[in-house]
């Protein structure tokens, strides 16, 4: 059974701080990793994807992948109240059409 | 650019009534298509996926069915809704990364 585990939170950080969201996955064959942001009552929005070990940066977001430890993280720099949402982590194996989703971590950025 | 549409946005239906939710994708060809359900406070549950016209795989046996009559059209149906069918229904498409539509919030009363 492929699993993606996330701490449900909530993770509470002050405005301007770095928010660190973490995710572990069970399938060593996973090759593609995704972070989605889901505001309350809305659909998930893809914000980052990473395929290779190391870091990938896009604006205030950095995704980090460590395949040896089966660990993915998302860093949000200069957190804003508008970043308050649930963040879903997903992993997909090579050749699979179906990503495995975690249940999400709730992030609260307070002014 | 690619766009995914779902309708209706919200729906209130009585128990035992039929259901039809539609999803269309623009700006791409031969996408993989998916139906998910997200119950309140729960994770994403994959219901169906399709890799081509007429090709449907079911992940959860239940009173729902799906069809893909055209390359970029995916339909979720039920003949008789149950209370447990209430939830947030999400259509998604992918070639590599997966992208979600705006969703349909279904309440069965």
Describe it.
The complex is a heterodimer of chains A (111) and B (109). By secondary structure, chain A is mostly beta strands. Helix content of chain A is 0%, strand content 56%. In chain A, strands 2, 4, 5, 9, 10 and 11 form a six-stranded mixed sheet that branches. Chain A has a five-stranded antiparallel sheet with strand order 1-3-8-7-6, with no helix packed on it. In chain A, strand 6 and strand 7 form a beta hairpin. Chain A starts with a strand and ends with a strand. The relative contact order of chain B is 0.34. In chain B, strand 5 (44-52) and strand 6 (55-58) form a beta hairpin. Chain B has 109 residues and is mainly β. In chain B, the strands form two sheets. In chain B, strands 2, 4, 5, 6, 9, 10 and 11 form a seven-stranded mixed sheet that branches. Chain B has a four-stranded antiparallel sheet with strand order 1-3-8-7, with no helix packed on it. Chain B has no helices and eleven strands. Chain A binds chain B through residues 32, 34, 36, 41-46, 49, 88, 90, 97-99, 101-104, and chain B through 32, 34, 42-44, 46, 49, 51, 88, 90, 94, 96-103, 105.
